[in-house]
Design goal:
There is one protein chain. By secondary structure, the protein is an alpha+beta fold. It has helices at about 5-15, 25-65, 80-85; strands spanning about 90-100, 100-110, 115-125, 130-140, 140-155, 160-170, 175-180, 190-195, 200-205, 205-210, 215-220, 230, 240-245, 250-260. Strands 1, 2, 3, 4, 5, 6, 7, 8, 9, 10, 11, 12, 13 and 14 form a 14-stranded antiparallel beta sheet that branches. Helix 1 (about 5-15) packs antiparallel against helix 2 (about 25-65). The radius of gyration is 20 Å and the shape is globular.
Length: about 260
């Protein structure tokens, strides 16, 4: 069933003296507003998925390199400086580092939202390192919960550090959404994370889906090479802008997805 709100809105505007020729312009603006609000809701899930993807790649590199720096209780995790900033400057609350398997609990994780915790676990699979991350952030009247299931292709070399998987997120209002990368099997094999900014992909695609205001909505970011970075004064990380396509039940629009702290 098509969304009746655009026609209802135009009817109200026409009753106030809007001429017939202006209706398409008003409809375009309304659809753009829907797309922009959808991208704003999707941004925390996309940001969480990308940051955890970067963490997964570093865990894979750590395993391939034979251990790396130790994870020390009460200290910052031994991750890239920008990943630590993106996570919210957390500290290691618990760690279990055994041969082949690894798990850790980080406290003070924000990912741009309220403070909470992140539990990480990784284990080698047949062709990839499998990484799970669970984020729990307490908010007034509820919690923000995000669960990521990721796989990093063996090798973890720069330019070949492909990460794929999904993230399921429930926000503080109880809205559920899902993030997948790649967006579809036919587009690419996963996200190739940058070595310069490890929370951002250089190549690949992702898709987001959720229900907003009773309507199924989706977001497609089909080419990470389109991401543009802007340095903002006072910001802990550069602002990333990714052109995306947002769709509702009977509309679609291209907007920019802003990612950062």
């Amino acid at each position: 069933m098509s969304d009746p709100r655009p026609s209802l809105l135009l009817g109200a505007l026409c009753a106030c003296g809007v001429t017939e020729g202006e209706e398409p312009v008003l409809l375009d603006r309304y659809v753009e507003a829907l797309a922009a609000s959808t991208a704003e809701v999707a941004a925390p899930a996309v940001w969480s998925g990308l940051v955890l993807g970067g963490v997964a790649v570093e865990l894979c590199q750590r395993r391939e390199q034979g251990g790396g720096e130790p994870w020390v209780l009460g200290a910052a995790p031994p991750l890239h400086e920008e990943l630590i900033r993106a996570l919210g400057e957390p500290v290691v609350a618990a760690v279990d580092d055994q041969a082949g398997a690894f798990s850790a609990l980080l406290s003070g994780v924000t990912l741009g939202g309220p403070e909470g915790a992140l539990r990480l676990s990784s284990s080698p699979g047949a062709v990839a390192l499998e990484v799970q991350g669970v984020v729990l952030n307490a908010v007034e009247g509820g919690a923000v919960v995000a669960t990521a299931d990721l796989a990093v292709a063996s090798g973890c070399l720069p330019g070949a550090n492909l990460v794929s998987g999904s993230l399921r997120r429930t926000d503080g209002l109880g809205r559920e959404s899902q993030l997948v990368f790649p967006a579809s099997a036919g587009l690419d094999a996963g996200l190739a994370m940058s070595s310069l900014h490890p929370y951002l992909p250089q190549q690949g695609s992702l898709g987001w889906s959720g229900v907003l205001e009773g309507e199924d909505r989706s977001l497609l970011a089909d080419d990470a090479a389109k991401i543009e970075l802007t340095e903002e004064e006072g910001s802990a990380l550069p602002l990333a802008v990714w052109p995306v396509l947002v769709e509702g039940s009977a509309w679609q629009a291209a907007v920019e997805l802003e990612l950062g702290l």
